[in-house]
Amino acid sequence: MISEEKISLERLGNRVMTMSAELRDMQLRFSAMESRFSGVEIRIGALERTITAQLDAIASRFDGMERRQVAHEERMSRIPALLVRIAERLDGEGAPR
Hints:
Layout: H1 9-94
């Protein structure tokens, strides 16, 4: 609805200037927020790289432990055969001829 009141140019100018100032203020606030988010993003990226490096180091340690375990299992699997040979020799020595 159009009101019957006349709008003065002075009031219109003041309102436009107020809105322009508010818009500038909002732009400054958004710029500050963007720079803060950029800083947070950089920190998160650094943290991600650190965690990835630590997880890679842990994985490498587990790989080494697994290789050592396989080697130990291989050696342990030879023990029964060795014990059988020792027992056979002992039985052979103790038997009368």
